[in-house]
Fold:
Amino acid sequence: MPFFHGLTNATISGDFYDNSTSSPGDKFPGLLRLKEHVAVSNLHNSKDRYPFPQCHPETRVDIIQNLGEWVTSNRSGSVLLLEGSLGLGKSVIAQKICEIYARSKTGPRQLLASYFFSWRSESTSTPTSLIATIAAQIVAMIPEIEEFMEQSISEYRPDIFAAFFEDQVDVLLVKPIIKAVTELGMSSAPHLVVIDGLNECKTREERTMILRTICNAVTNNALPLRFLITTRPQPRLRSIVNNDRENNSILSLTDDATFVQDIIRYLRSELIRIREERELMTDWPQEEDVTALLNRSPGGFIYPFLLVKFIDLDDRSPQRQMELMLTIPIRGEPTSPFSACSNFATVMGKDHILHTITPDTISRPYHYCMINTLFNTDLPYLQEFVFSFLGKLSTAELRQVLMDVHSIYVPPCPY
Structure:
């Protein structure tokens, strides 16, 4: 029996929540204050995030299945850190998990709350609204917890929403949930909280504080919650999870053996789609051309994604676009997302790059990579800086200095 199973029709929204069984009204002034601190734009189903990132139907199947087994298993509350470099699809996977468990067909929904960090603005890249937004979704899903949440908020002085992060976790999550479980005698089977893009949180201190506080709260208080948290590889975050591997775990997309096959499936499927939609010859594309394109990929979805966008431009011939990509020499080694974006900047030129950028993709990292490379700004300087100014450091020192950018560049291990 899932944790707090009495509610099936609540949805978080711009009006705090829409729940036919309950309404905060004047009876709950604390909940009305909670509403003021909700970041609706950070929810997995917020209209501000539309169109949502989507998995290709034939990709990431094994990862989704593994995460599903973790969500539905009988283990106690825990934290799973899903880590992967730029372009490996962390946000796409987090979105898919939210969608699956927000509308379970076999029983009560498993998704309790979601929060997607974003670097688009100050409000979406800081932890200020994180716990309040999760707490609001808990109230929306679980009307029985309203009084406990109200009591916890009202007892804290002077203002819980201006308090330190650890206090917010204690007041808005730990105390209400423990009271509801113990006093109402409900089952303590866990529910799912998804936090995506922890690396988008601006400072290293905030990222480590968030993960450490959540891990401690879940473990020390036996909270019946499961936190799926996605991030780029960062040693400090990994060490926090490794300190308690009995309750917490790490799943690395970088080590996923099916990833290469997923890229192949994606590219071939999309090229077939283009052929059918454009009514091209049935022998297009040639298998050797597809293989040549795959050999140019740096190992992430960024290059294949941009490649499909480039080939499928409305006012261009797909055959000609593919020929262009195959005839332009590769700049550098195709081992990182930045090298792939740099090659696209060279091949496509300003007009083509701007053609691939739409209002829903303008803030995505790979478009910034291309623009920066094209206009000779940040990225070329980054490489020069690393090798010129840091070149005299030992390997161990270099790893220490660059430990927060391991998703971009990882110096060889000194031991």
